DNA sequence: CGGCATCCACATGGATACTG
DNA sequence: CAGTATCCATGTGGATGCCG
C-alpha cells in the first residue's frame, strides 16, 4: 500500500501521541460530536437552548460535556452579566476545525442509517 | 446558516437514528478506528499480526473489538483450516467505506498533535 | 496460533432533586 | 436561566492465566 520509505510500523498506540486516538478522545464521547455539530451549524447558544436542540441529553451530562470540551479547548464559554444573566457557548477555532471530521461522520451515518443490518 | 426550508430543528437525538451518533458508536470506541485504519492501510491480517501492529492492545480487548466490529458488519473473519490454522481478518465493503471518516480523524489528529494544549 | 475465562477498576452516562 | 448535588447502572478497558 505504501512503499518501504514512508511506512508506519505502528498504526496507533495506547498512548496519546496517536493521531487517530487523539481525535477519538474528542469525538468518541457520546454527545461531544453532536454538540460540536450543533454549534457548527446552529451558531453560538445558551445552555438551555443547547439542551433543547440536543434531544435527550440531561442537564448534568450537557454540563459535564461542555466542561470537558472547554478543557480540551474546543468550546468557549462566556458569561454575559445581565438580568437574568446569559451564558454563551461557542466553538473556538480549534473546535471549528473539527468540521471535516464531523461532516464525514454525519455523511457516513446518513448513508448507512437506512441499512443498519447487513 | 440554512434557510427555513431545510433546517433541522434537532441536531441529534439520544436514539439510534441520529447519523452522527450512529457513526460515533462505531468510531468512538477506543480501539475501533485504529483497527479499521490498520486494516485499511495494511490489508488483511491474522490475529497476532494485528495485535503486534496495534501497539498496546491486549488479546482480550482486541478479541472483543473484533467481535463487535463483526457484529456491526465492518469486519469479516475467515478461518483457514491448515496446521497450524490461520484466521484472516479483513474489512467488509461497509468497513472500507469508513475510510473518509478515519482519514479525517487521522488528519485532524496529526495537525493538532503538536499543540495538545492551547 | 488464536483465542476465551475471570475478575476487576474506572469512566461515562442517567435520574432525580435542588439552587443562586 | 444555568446550572450543581447525589446516587447509581452500565460499559469499556485491562491484567492474568488457561486452552484447543
From TrEMBL, chains A, B:
Alphabetized PANTHER family for the sequence: TRANSCRIPTIONAL REGULATOR, MARR FAMILY (PTHR33204), TRANSCRIPTIONAL REGULATORY PROTEIN (PTHR33204:SF18)
Protein name in UniProt: Helix-turn-helix transcriptional regulator
Species: Haloarcula limicola
Keyword check for Metal-binding: no
Upper taxonomic lineage: Archaea, Methanobacteriati, Methanobacteriota, Stenosarchaea group, Halobacteria
Top-level taxon in the UniProt lineage: Archaea
GO MF annotation: an example: DNA binding
Keywords associated with the record: DNA-binding, Transcription, Transcription regulation
Keyword Thylakoid assigned: no
Occurrences of domain HTH hxlR-type (ranges): 18-117
